[in-house]
Design a protein that fits this description.
single chain; about 260 residues; alpha+beta; Beta Polymerase, domain 2; globular
Length: about 260
């Protein structure tokens, strides 16, 4: 394992345990371990999850899948805080290289207490992960990511961002109860900023950078909403102001309606 420590010793211990556990379970099928998300982009904070990708020679199936689930149960007990914030995929070299609509199902572990390993679609929206991995990913073990992933173009990033907007974000309009809590409401606002940035620029930005870009570009009333979302990342205990959920839903509608005119 390459010694590239984070700023958090407890996360380094957890990642070391993930690495050794995956090697024991996967054996010769283990190809590499990489970090993406906020850790790779330099925007990690105590509200972030720990994004990882384990690359395998061939797809993970059957008893190996079950053994990996057992590993993650142990990791959650090893560190009750960060063990439940691990989020990542076990994806074969063929599945990682580029989007293939005939090869999209791979084991995925999402953060959250009680989560279990499951098969999930890594569709065209996963090109955003491929881009972050290829251009910014942290190699903990294995070959360079540029050898494993084909270049991701700006248009591919825009298509991925558009699909997220019309899928995940639009889905919130039908289920607004999902954003009743401060943490997920702020996550929603800042994720919308990232989507809008990508649609316009054809690149990926961290939440703070995309948020400031949107504030300058969009102005009132969204600037105030975005500012509160940024501040909430430091203070999850701040209650949502009255009407904040409705304003957030209005921001989703605005984003969906204005993606081609920003």
């Amino acid at each position: 394992m390459i010694d590239t420590p984070t700023l958090y010793p407890e996360i380094d211990r957890l990642l070391a345990a993930l690495y050794s556990g995956d090697q024991a379970v996967l054996g010769d099928n283990f190809t590499g371990m990489y970090l993406d998300g906020s850790l790779a982009c330099g925007a990690f904070d105590l509200a972030s999850d720990v994004d990882f990708v384990i690359v395998t020679a061939v797809d993970v199936l059957g008893e190996t899948f079950d053994a990996l689930q057992a590993l993650h149960e142990k990791l959650a007990l090893l560190d009750p805080v960060w063990g439940n914030k691990l989020e990542g995929s076990y994806i074969s070299r063929a599945g990682l290289r580029h989007y293939d609509p005939e090869h999209v199902m791979h084991p995925t572990f999402e953060w959250g207490e009680g989560e279990r390993l499951k098969m999930a679609a890594h569709d065209a929206t996963w090109d955003i992960h491929r881009y972050i991995l290829r251009e910014h990913g942290i190699c903990k073990a294995g070959p360079p990511l540029q050898e494993l992933i084909d270049p991701v173009t700006p248009d591919q990033l825009r298509r991925a961002a558009s699909a997220i907007l019309t899928g995940w974000a639009a889905g919130l309009l039908a289920a607004p109860e999902q954003i009743q809590g401060r943490e997920y409401q702020s996550y929603t606002v800042l994720s919308l900023c990232r989507i809008l940035y990508t649609l316009q620029i054809g690149d990926i930005a961290t939440k703070p950078i995309a948020a400031r870009w949107c504030q300058e570009r969009l102005g009132s009333p969204w600037s105030t909403l975005i500012e509160r979302a940024l501040e909430s990342c430091k203070h999850w205990d701040i209650p949502l102001p009255i009407g904040e959920v409705q304003v957030t839903l209005d921001f989703i509608r605005y984003a969906v309606a204005h993606t081609t005119t920003l």
